[in-house]
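Project outcomes to date are best conveyed with an example. Our students and postdoctoral researchers have been running inverse folding experiments weekly, and each run begins with a structure described purely in tokens. The record below, which covers 477 residues, was selected by the lab manager from last quarter's runs and is presented without edits.
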């Protein structure tokens, strides 16, 4: 009997550990090959005029794919990297390979689902079935105590239902120890355009060096949990903005599937047994639940995630002003907390959760801009870009999503004083403000002209005047 051949099309599941597709393919006794296809549409220019995938995110992705390729080949398997439209290239490859099945991880959002559907149809025309599996969340959607269409619209009831029912996290799939190879095949596949991968390096002032790939993700977990023992203090430090260890920094690896949330969960449980079980260990899992929540929200609401009116069909959510947008995007609003965070994002591809909440609120609530422009810039820039977490959080902050407090916004100056009381964060990213006394560093324009002269700070030249007056009508964040 001829041996079956499985082609695994990798997407946001760039790992060997806890991988349902690899596990099932191995169990079937088939020969297994892997492929990753850089989707050319993901490198196009957005309607807002910047690339959909910026240079630092592209670099992190490339490193992650390369890491998987190396590991795959070390286990004896064949792995291809290609570029173009996956729904065309993958079926062509499957035919040449005489693949009997194509495996891939399911996604839930518009662009990704469309690609899946077209790819499935193309394969069906060739008589090749697909096997789709789930692999992105901590909890499997089939185990939820409600259908995804009945998902609570607010996070707390969602979390409580999961916690009160003591829902189990499914066990891990073991990583493969060898991969049965397909017969050698000489193929020339399209390669990515060099323009997609510009030689850009992250600014060394960033919180840490992020290296894409499963091995680097697992090493980060080892550092944060075991070597540095940081997990025990996570709840107290997680609102920080400076340094590697105020939070886990798992998000870039989670976003590309280099780390499985179930793997992190099992590591937390082990930490609780071997080190300490406290509110911090609980809180990390709590945050992973937020991640699940936004994925299920995206599944429930479909395209509405990307509408200007958002999940809730709100009217009048922001306009468009290219000059104001550019000030925000480049970190020149005249509000140091916003500018420091936006420069960190542009120069490193990362920003803390505290920073993200503030800059997003500033764009929507203070500048009054269309929240989708901000979400698109995050999509371009963040190395941890995750379609559901990003667009879900933006909906939330814009007031078009799952925040039960309707008109919430962040009071930027209050936040600055609370989360950067000494001004260390803004001085780190805005060295032009370094000479300012702490009392003025978040409001440089509160200095008199004489004080500016004495400090040798030229406001308006070295640092811009506020681009807008802050107004806070109702509730405060
Ligand atoms: P930790 O504090 O260590 O949290 C552990 C993990 O929990 C994170 O890695 C992440 O997977 C998850 N998590 C924590 N907070 C959230 C949250 N609010 N929503 C969803 N998951 C969460 N996160 C992304 O992974 N990708 C995005 O594209 C993204 N865009 C965002 C956009 C906005 C406007 C906001 C306000 C938040 C966004 N987040 C996004 C959520 C959050 O800011 C990041 O997950 C977090 O800052 C990553 O740092 P960390 O891994 O150190 O987080």
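After processing, the design step wrote out the following sequence:
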């Amino acid at each position: 009997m001829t041996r079956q051949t499985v082609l695994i099309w990798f997407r946001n599941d760039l790992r060997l550990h806890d991988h349902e597709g690899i596990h099932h393919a191995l169990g079937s006794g088939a020969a297994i090959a892997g492929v990753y296809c850089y989707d050319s549409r993901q490198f196009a220019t957005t309607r807002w005029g910047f690339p959909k995938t910026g240079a630092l995110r592209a670099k992190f992705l490339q490193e992650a794919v390369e890491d998987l390729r190396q590991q795959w080949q070390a286990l004896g398997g064949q792995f291809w990297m290609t570029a173009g439209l996956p729904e065309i290239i993958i079926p062509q490859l499957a035919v040449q390979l005489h693949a009997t099945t194509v495996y891939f991880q399911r996604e839930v959002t518009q662009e990704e689902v469309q690609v899946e559907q077209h790819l499935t149809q193309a394969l069906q025309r060739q008589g090749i079935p697909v096997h789709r599996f789930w692999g992105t969340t901590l909890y499997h959607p089939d185990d939820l105590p409600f259908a995804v269409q009945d998902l609570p619209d607010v996070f707390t009831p969602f979390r409580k239902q999961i916690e009160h029912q003591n829902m189990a996290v499914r066990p891990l799939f073991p990583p493969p120890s060898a991969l049965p190879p397909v017969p050698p095949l000489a193929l020339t596949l399209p390669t990515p355009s060099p323009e997609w991968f510009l030689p850009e390096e992250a600014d060394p002032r960033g919180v840490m060096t992020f290296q894409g790939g499963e091995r680097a993700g697992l090493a980060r977990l080892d550092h944060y949990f075991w070597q540095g023992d940081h997990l025990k203090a996570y709840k107290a430090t997680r609102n920080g903005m400076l340094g590697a260890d105020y939070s886990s920094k798992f998000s870039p690896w989670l976003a590309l599937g280099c780390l499985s949330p179930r793997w992190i969960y099992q590591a937390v449980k082990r930490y609780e047994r071997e080190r300490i079980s406290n509110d911090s260990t609980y809180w990390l899992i709590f945050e992973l639940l937020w991640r699940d929540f936004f994925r299920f929200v995206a599944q429930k609401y479909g395209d509405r995630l990307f509408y200007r009116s958002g999940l809730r069909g709100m009217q009048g959510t922001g306009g468009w002003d290219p000059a104001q947008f550019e000030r925000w995007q480049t970190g020149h609003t005249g509000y140091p907390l916003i500018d420091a965070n936006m420069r960190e994002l542009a120069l490193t591809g990362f920003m803390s959760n505290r920073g993200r909440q503030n800059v997003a609120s500033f764009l929507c609530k203070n500048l009054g801009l269309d929240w989708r422009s901000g979400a698109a810039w995050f999509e371009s820039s963040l190395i941890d870009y995750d379609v559901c977490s990003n667009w879900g959080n933006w909906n939330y902050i814009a007031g078009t999503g799952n925040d039960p407090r309707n008109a919430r916004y962040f009071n930027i100056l209050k936040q600055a004083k609370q989360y950067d009381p000494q001004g260390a964060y803004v001085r780190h990213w805005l060295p032009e403000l370094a000479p300012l006394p702490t009392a003025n560093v978040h409001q440089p324009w509160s200095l008199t002209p004489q004080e500016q002269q004495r400090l040798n700070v030229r406001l308006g030249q070295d640092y811009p005047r506020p681009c807008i007056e802050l107004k806070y009508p109702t509730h405060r964040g």
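The chain is about 45% helix and 5% strand. Residues 422 and 439 are 8 Å apart (CA to CA). The training component of this project remains on track.
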